[in-house]
Design a protein that fits this description.
- With 211 residues, the protein is mainly α.
- The chain has a single domain, classed as Hypothetical protein af1432.
- The chain contains ten helices and no strands.
- α2 packs across α7, α3 packs across α6 and α6 runs parallel beside α7.
């Protein structure tokens, strides 16, 4: 698969089998929950942009693979960063690096298209000018129901209280939910006295400026 060729149904089966063999327990439950959540969000948002349901396969691919390297240690993450030429930033951590290494590993193993690669790559910090798929995976990862954090629950409640089938406001609601999630992440990192990846700040300011 190259460029933006939509993920095939056969490829989804291969990815699902791979993920099921590599992840287990809460992590696997989370991945499947993200897929379910992302597909639900997409059905509210896709019609606004005239995106066909065949692109739901890209949603599944990105959801299933977004945490493909989450269980790796920091030295293992750094080794993959060296292999793929990934910038580790000023404060390398598994929490941030896994999204980048997962994107590159997924491309190597499954030839994922550019849209899926981007959604996996930025699902932790976001980025400026996110695509529709980027946004869906980003927020699905944050609000899926196995997330027990209060900030995640608030964002989930806000999203589903403000979307409705066929509403043109669904895109704005998605963006505002992303802002809520970024604010929640930043507050949590400050409370834990941890560094904040600069891309998280840039993403938050971009959405704040455009909404």
């Amino acid at each position: 698969m190259n460029g933006n060729e939509i993920t095939s149904a056969r490829k989804i089966d291969e990815i699902r089998s791979y993920v099921s063999s590599r992840l287990s327990g809460d992590r696997l439950s989370h991945v499947f929950s993200v897929e379910k959540e992302a597909l639900c969000i997409a059905k509210y948002v896709f019609p606004i942009y005239n995106i066909g349901n065949e692109h739901l396969r890209d949603v599944s691919a990105a959801s299933l693979l977004h945490d493909a390297t989450k269980n790796l240690t920091l030295p293992e993450q750094l080794a993959l960063c060296e292999k793929y030429g990934i910038d580790t930033g000023d404060f390398p951590s598994c929490a941030v690096l896994h999204s980048k290494t997962a994107a590159y590993l997924s491309r190597e193993l499954f030839g994922i298209n550019d849209d899926v690669f981007s959604a996996i790559y930025c699902h932790t910090t976001g980025r400026e000018n996110m695509s529709v798929l980027d946004k869906i995976i980003f927020i699905a990862d944050y609000i899926e129901p196995t997330r027990a954090y209060e900030e995640c629950k608030k964002a989930r409640d806000y999203f589903y209280a403000n979307v409705s089938e066929g509403s043109e406001n669904n895109a704005e609601t998605l963006d505002k939910t992303i802002i809520m999630s970024l604010d929640g992440t930043i507050r949590s990192l400050i409370a834990k006295n941890r560094p904040i990846d600069v891309q998280t700040i840039l993403t938050r300011n971009y959405f704040f400026k455009t909404n």
